[in-house]
Amino acid sequence: MLTKTLITRALLLRGVTNAANNMKQIKRNAGHGVWTYRVPPPLPSKRAIYLAEALGALAWYWILYHCITEPDHIFGEFTYVDPSTYTDEELGIPPDSVGSLRK
């Protein structure tokens, strides 16, 4: 019975020390990758380059396709009206015969 208790305590102690060692390892390797000093970083893999190119091409396709098929998003939905075509009534200007400055 005594040996069984000692064995379980030893296993628990070993588990605690392993956890402490793992925390030290995590803290030491917290750089998230290969750390280099005065050396160029490693190049990305071919797969990462191809994936980035494909996503960039898809984004530009989406933008240019919608610029061509739906130009109203850029230029507006309505035609531009020349302001000189508005009448005084539409602009809210009273006629010359009304007001304190009449002749």
TrEMBL record:
Record has Transmembrane helix as a keyword: no
Subunit record text: Complex I is composed of 45 different subunits.
Biological process per Gene Ontology, one example term: mitochondrial respiratory chain complex I assembly
Name of the protein this chain belongs to: NADH dehydrogenase [ubiquinone] 1 beta subcomplex subunit 2, mitochondrial
Location of the protein in the cell: Mitochondrion inner membrane
Function: Accessory subunit of the mitochondrial membrane respiratory chain NADH dehydrogenase (Complex I), that is believed not to be involved in catalysis. Complex I functions in the transfer of electrons from NADH to the respiratory chain. The immediate electron acceptor for the enzyme is believed to be ubiquinone.
Keyword entries, A-Z: Electron transport, Membrane, Mitochondrion, Mitochondrion inner membrane, Respiratory chain, Transit peptide, Transport
